[in-house]
Amino acid sequence: MKINHAFIIVGIFLATSGFAQTTLKEAFKNDFLIGAALNETQFSGGKAAEAALVRTQFNTISPENVLKWEPIHPKSDQYNFGPADQYVEFGQKNGLFIVGHTLVWHQQTPKWVFQDARGKPLDRDTLLARMREHIFTVVGRYQGKIGGWDVVNEALNDDGTLRESPWEKIIGEDYLLKAYQFAHEADPQAQLYYNDFSLENAPKREGAIALVKKLQAAGIPIAGVGLQGHYNMDWPTPAQLDETIAAFSPLGVKVMITELDLNMLPAATQSQAAEVSMNFALRAELNPYTNGLPAVVQQQLAQRYADLFAVLVKHHDVVSRVTFWGVTDGDSWLNNWPVKGRTAYPLLFDRNRQPKPAFNAVIQTSRLPQTPQKPR
Ligand code: XIL
């Protein structure tokens, strides 16, 4: 009897602790890199336990914010490299594939970038010169260290047309081509990516396919397309994800899931768009799980993750990386977007860094033989 009890206790420990389970990077080592977006506390030593979890589970990292224009280049004559340097050092020290995110975007880019000294809209040539200087400075600094760059982020509208961002309005549609040319000149070895959300919807996907073809026709060696992967419980369907990966594959580019999370909180809007500018008022009915996730919802999340990973594993020859947008549920931007102050559960590790049922569900989609999880 005593021995049986011991077995049961060890079994519960193994099943709940993640100990003796395979890790994410091990489970998908023959398929794709597996990563997480990091915030400053995780790579600057503030959250040592989360850093340890990153080292154990992942083989690639993305910077949640520190390489965006606003934090790294807040004023025209001022760069703030400290946090980005720490991010890159963390990746190098731990032998991780380091992603750069992002060079040219309409969000988290200061107003001065698009204005002259008197606050008037800049002319095309001056903005191009500014873009070139920024790209050469940032990409050049991390040349040979950052392996791939989201050069342009979110350039398309839902209907596949080009977004009328300040970049597009001032420079014209060739701003994209210029951004990729500058990035390629600044580090010829770095992989160049195009990153966006909602590419699983056909009209926007067609726009992205046309964009990739245009870049390729101009001689840009574009290496991959990033599907951000800010998904919810109903969208995209596994079939939509499947057809999206299949649609990019003939272009000869890799497909990456670059910002994966599953928002299972009540929808604040009908829109599937991951526009960071969205902000809806907090209401109690939008925040139902402040005291934890009911088991049945945990299982739904696990099943949903398993369904999506089954598609990614099926396309392991085209999918080169799957990166989660955060490490634990507590870190996720979804606690504050598109509604501030909610309790979100979109990732594989809970607020105490423990693997959730969704973690096991994902591991079980691996093509490798499974580690038995209970003692015999
Ligand atoms: C988000 C970060 O997670 C937040 O911390 C920040 O306040 C806003 O941006 N698409 C992207 C990411 O490409 O850069 C965004 O990251 C999420 C949506």
Describe the structure in your own words.
The chain contains 13 helices and 9 strands. The protein is of the alpha/beta class. Strands 1-2-3-4-5-6-8-9 form an 8-stranded parallel beta barrel, surrounded by 5 helices. About 3% of the residues have low confidence. The site of (3S,4R)-3-hydroxy-2-oxopiperidin-4-yl beta-D-xylopyranoside has 8 residues, from loops. (3S,4R)-3-hydroxy-2-oxopiperidin-4-yl beta-D-xylopyranoside (XIL) binds next to loops.
Structure summary:
The protein has helices at 2-17, 24-27, 40-43, 48-57, 69-72, 82-93, 124-141, 166-171, 175-186, 202-217, 238-248, 295-314, 357-363, and strands at 33-38, 60-63, 97-104, 148-153, 191-196, 222-227, 230-232, 254-263, 319-324.
Looking at this protein, list some descriptive labels.
single chain; binds (3S,4R)-3-hydroxy-2-oxopiperidin-4-yl beta-D-xylopyranoside; 376 residues; 13 helices; alpha/beta; eight-stranded parallel beta barrel; 9 strands
How are the secondary structure elements laid out?
Elements: H1 2-17, H2 24-27, E1 33-38, H3 40-43, H4 48-57, E2 60-63, H5 69-72, H6 82-93, E3 97-104, H7 124-141, E4 148-153, H8 166-171, H9 175-186, E5 191-196, H10 202-217, E6 222-227, E7 230-232, H11 238-248, E8 254-263, H12 295-314, E9 319-324, H13 357-363
Bound molecules: (3S,4R)-3-hydroxy-2-oxopiperidin-4-yl beta-D-xylopyranoside.
